[in-house]
Specification:
The complex is a heterodimer of chains A (252) and B (200). In chain A, a hairpin with a 4-residue loop joins β2 and β3. With 252 residues, chain A is α+β, with helices and mostly antiparallel strands. Chain B is built from ten helices and no strands. Chain B is globular and about 50 Å long. In chain B, α9 crosses α10. The chains are: A alpha+beta (252), B mainly alpha (200).
């Protein structure tokens, strides 16, 4: 985060900016992923100030609201197709995100043993389950919200499919695979970041224990990474690959 | 579709990171046009929505108008809610706060308000927060976390959030440079975020 504008996140979330500065900041926000993340977090904090307020709303308010909604047509869900216009701050995700979410949603759906459906709501529901499953889900969401999030799919041996979400901006890669043959008891699958010179850095071991689906593996990706590679290593993993990768994915 | 148990407005245990499953499930149903699910969501959130709006707008009749506008907007835009962007409660209260502030700003031209604000003896919003009878976990938590802010951070946050002042108006009241109030708002909210454990 740079610039003086970046310090406006606080004033922005409490709606303390006059209209002209607000508009200026929203333009900046569209180009500043860190600011967007901070706005999201500070908004949660500010909303707690609101949630601390509590009273019983007048009964007639409820009647009026319910009467009005029965006469009010709801907005259609935001489209998930390519937009040439930059979406407004509070509009739906940008193009790449929708694409990423769709691709990932299928993988996630598979991972969680549910039928993959492309509908946005189903994807959301799947992501919800992910998030419910713990912090990794939140990390995945955060990755998906990176404006530069990209999805790379690849097919491996014997019907294996790998999906990777990459964000150079966040410096992270998320890898998951379906259709894996479980590794023999004394072996593990290990993922590597491989730079252009062929030097490999471990990204971690895949947890492909008892199912054919791996749990998503998220790892900090060195900036020099040119491809990801998956190898089979002795139990506990290796400091460097000892076998030829069964699968590689380009990251650039 | 399953019937969902009516959720209790009172919580004695800390809410988890967000709304718990209820609000999210309800808004997903409301987004499909289920008015009964919306009614349950209304029951869950209207107490805070109305209280917050009333706190900013003050005037009871206007508060009701704004609250109605906001809650109908929640219905209309339920399809736009994205769980990965934050909790339902945050989404709704963000909207409520924005509309409440719009209402007080439109009620008066900025310069006029600023002049009045400067001339006013301002009561301290923090005292109002601390004087509320706090039986709810959220209130106790918020109150405790507000004490971790410096006085200037706290007053900047509370004057803008609960009164709907711009940061410049708040600076006039606090007799501090506007640029200072701007950064204190951010610093204060960061402290609040960390103390409440939200956002990450």
């Amino acid at each position: 985060m740079s610039s003086d504008l970046a310090t406006l996140t606080g004033a922005y979330v409490v709606n303390a900016l006059p209209d002209d500065e607000r508009a200026e900041f929203e333009v900046h926000l569209a180009d500043c992923a860190d600011c967007r993340q901070e706005v999201r977090e500070l908004r949660e904090a500010a909303a707690r100030l609101g949630a601390a307020e509590h009273t019983t709303a007048p009964e007639e308010l409820k009647q009026r609201v319910l009467a009005e909604i029965s006469q009010t047509r709801q907005d259609p869900p935001p489209p998930a197709e390519v937009r040439t216009l930059r979406p407004r701050t509070r509009a739906s995700w940008g193009t790449r995100l929708s694409v990423a979410a769709a691709a990932l949603g299928v993988a996630l759906a598979a991972a969680f043993g549910v039928v993959a459906v492309q509908a946005q709501q189903e994807l959301d529901a799947t992501r919800e389950r992910m998030i419910a499953a713990g912090a990794r889900g939140a990390e995945i969401s955060a990755m998906l919200q990176a404006p530069d999030a990209r999805v790379v799919n690849a097919a491996g041996p014997e019907g294996m499919r790998a999906t990777t979400v990459l964000s150079a901006e966040q410096g992270k890669a998320m890898f998951m695979a379906t259709g894996m043959t479980p590794a023999p008891d004394d072996r593990v699958y290990q993922l590597w970041f491989i730079d252009p010179s062929g030097t490999a850095t471990s990204a971690g071991l895949l947890n492909a224990a008892r199912t054919e689906h791996t749990e998503p593996l998220i790892a900090a990706m060195p900036a020099t990474t040119a491809q990801l590679g998956l190898t089979i290593e002795p139990h506990g993993g290796s400091p460097a690959p000892t076998t030829t990768p069964i699968l590689t994915l380009p990251t650039t | 579709m399953q019937e969902r148990p009516h959720s209790r407005p009172q919580r004695s245990t800390p809410p988890d990171e967000d709304d718990g499953p209820d609000a999210r499930a309800l808004i997903a149903e409301a987004a499909k046009g289920d008015e009964r699910a919306f009614e349950q969501l209304y029951d869950l959130l209207s107490g805070s929505v109305f209280a917050l709006i009333q706190r900013v707008v003050r005037d009871a009749a206007q508060s009701e108008e704004v609250a109605q506008e906001v809650l109908v907007e929640v219905w209309r835009r339920a399809t736009h809610y994205r769980p990965d962007r934050g909790s339902v409660q945050t989404w709704v209260l963000t909207l409520a706060h924005r509309r409440a502030v719009d209402r007080v700003r439109s009620a008066q031209a900025g310069r006029d308000r600023e002049a009045r604000a400067g001339a006013q003896q301002h009561s301290r919003p923090f005292d109002e927060v601390t004087e509320t009878v706090t039986t709810r976990w959220e209130q106790r938590q918020v109150r405790r976390c507000l004490t971790t802010l410096t006085e200037l951070q706290r007053e900047s946050v509370l004057l803008t959030y609960y009164r709907g002042y711009t940061y410049r108006e708040a600076a006039g009241l606090l007799d501090a440079p506007a640029s200072t109030v701007k950064t204190r708002l951010r610093d204060g909210l960061i402290r609040l975020r960390d103390c409440l454990g939200v956002g990450r």
